[in-house]
Amino acid sequence: MSTGFSIGYMNFTILLLLLSGICMLSLDVKTYERAHLKKEKKTARILAWFNISLSAVAFIGNLIFRNM
């Protein structure tokens, strides 16, 4: 049963979270590693995985919401 309520920007939000997490892992972490900045590297890695996991949770939540 559809309620007629729709979140139009959810797909873009999921995509942006995923892409920002991947970019942080591929660019920021390597940059900090080359500069020998351990705390910044660890923080960037944690935030990148947080973005990726948040995009996965939002994707699953969006699927559940659409199928209700």
TrEMBL record:
Keywords: Membrane, Transmembrane, Transmembrane helix. InterPro entries: CLC_0170-like. The chain crosses the membrane at residues 6-25, 46-65. It comes from the Bacteria. This is Uncharacterized protein. The lineage of its organism: Bacteria, Bacillati, Bacillota, Bacilli, Bacillales.
